[in-house]
Specification:
With 155 residues, the chain is α+β, with helices and mostly antiparallel strands. The chain has one domain. The protein is 35% helix and 33% strand. The protein is built from three helices and six strands. A six-stranded antiparallel sheet has the order 4-3-2-1-6-5, with helices on both faces. The longest helix is centred in the middle third of the chain and has 27 residues, at 90-116. The chain is globular, with a radius of gyration of 17 Å.
């Protein structure tokens, strides 16, 4: 099992995958990493699914396919509710929570400085990628969102 610090050192983004059908939706957290200085991985810890690719777009395409194949297989076995029964190691979920906390702290600082000391504030935003939409069937869609992060390595 990898440590939280090792996973955070490899992180490039976190986000969510939203499965929708009509007026219902389910959100699944995701964690993006670069491993072996070459492969982009996306982990969905709560449902125990991950995928990779040579670039982020390929990894996103592959995670959508992996989730869909898993979902269909469980449906065919009448076990859709079991999708949460085999999560990845808890450290991946912890990494997402840590990135969210860091992101929120950074944004709260910017918000406070903008209102309390606007003349000395550098305005910058963390790049947020627009949602990538996938049509899985006539009614079922998946949207992939991600928030890029810059994780400072500890010395």
């Amino acid at each position: 099992m990898e440590s939280l610090d090792k996973i955070l050192d490899k992180c490039i983004a976190y986000g969510e995958i939203v499965i929708t059908a009509e007026d219902m939706e389910v959100s699944i957290e995701s964690l993006y990493t670069i491993e072996d200085d070459a492969y982009h991985y996306i982990y969905c810890p709560l449902i125990g699914v991950f995928a990779y690719g040579g670039d982020i777009k390929t990894a996103e395409d592959n995670i959508v396919s992996a989730i869909w194949v898993n979902f269909e297989a469980l449906h065919n076995e009448n076990r859709v509710a079991d999708i949460y029964d085999n999560p990845l190691d808890e450290v991946y979920s912890q990494a997402i929570k840590e990135l969210e906390i860091r992101h929120n702290k950074q944004h709260l600082k910017i918000i406070a400085e903008s209102y309390l000391n606007p003349e000395n504030t550098e305005n910058f935003r963390t790049p947020k990628k627009g949602a990538q939409l996938y049509d899985l069937s006539t009614q079922i869609k998946m949207k992939v969102y991600s928030e890029l992060v810059s994780v400072k390595k500890s010395a």
